[in-house]
Inverse folding.
């Protein structure tokens, strides 16, 4: 369990709605192997690894984290005095927490964190939890088959992701969507409104530009992202959905952060 930095910290704080945001990575590497750049790919490429390599910890994350929490918050003081319900943990930035190889360990870790009354959020392209308190998120930047087949072929389809979120929402859960990295026109042409129409039921949308690629930094991309941010904010106001636009995206289009 560690304090993320930069845009990762920003995402964790936005989803968990707390400044006391931490993260836990269930593994290092991700067999989803999406073809657009993400936190995991950039980190692995910089170290000469392939992102599809999945390196597991030597000990179960639930045990490692439990020991860490006990060290941070000694049992000699009542847990109620620590305000652990103000602490949140995000799963996870360096892998998909619901890859088959780590899914059982993820569920065990979630149970451990919740036993300390710590908030938990997860982001996946594979599954959601069956645990009521988890803030389940799915990355959905397009629902088009062509985009999915080209960029996310090892994941479940975006339509299947939406269906999983709908089921979770119908069970009273907080559900959210990461629309990052959202493709510029130079990468893929689609109607943002058509995608948003399918997401009217979610509690939060986190939106961010296409990263680590010069095609996401053109003047055409800048103008389109400015238009998309306006569309998102209007959509959020209309449907009561919290919209968080990443600070790097706002800086790129010359806008300041707002409350929605």
């Amino acid at each position: 369990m560690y304090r993320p930095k930069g845009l990762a910290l920003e995402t964790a704080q936005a989803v968990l709605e707390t400044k006391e945001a931490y993260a836990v990575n269930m593994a290092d590497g991700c067999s989803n192997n999406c073809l657009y750049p993400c936190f995991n790919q950039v980190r692995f490429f910089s170290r000469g690894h392939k992102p599809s390599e999945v390196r597991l910890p030597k000990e179960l994350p639930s045990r490692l984290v439990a020991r860490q929490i006990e060290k941070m918050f000694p049992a000699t003081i009542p847990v109620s005095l620590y305000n652990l319900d103000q602490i949140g943990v995000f799963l996870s930035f360096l892998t998909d927490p619901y890859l088959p190889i780590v899914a059982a360990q993820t569920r065990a870790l979630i149970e451990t964190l919740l036993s300390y009354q710590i908030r938990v959020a997860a982001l996946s392209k594979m599954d959601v939890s069956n645990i009521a308190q988890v803030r389940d998120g799915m990355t959905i930047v397009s629902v088009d088959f062509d985009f999915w087949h080209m960029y996310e072929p090892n994941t479940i389809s975006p339509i299947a992701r939406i269906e999983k979120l709908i089921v979770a929402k119908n069970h009273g859960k907080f559900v959210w969507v990461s629309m990052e990295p959202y493709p510029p026109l130079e990468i893929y042409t689609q109607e943002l409104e058509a995608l948003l129409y399918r997401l009217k039921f979610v509690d939060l949308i986190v939106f961010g530009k296409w990263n680590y690629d010069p095609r996401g930094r053109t003047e055409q991309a800048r103008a389109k992202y400015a238009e998309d941010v306006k569309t998102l904010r209007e959509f959020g106001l209309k449907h009561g959905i919290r919209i968080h636009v990443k600070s790097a995206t706002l800086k790129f289009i010359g806008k300041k952060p707002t409350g929605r």
Observations:
- The chain has a mean pLDDT of 89.
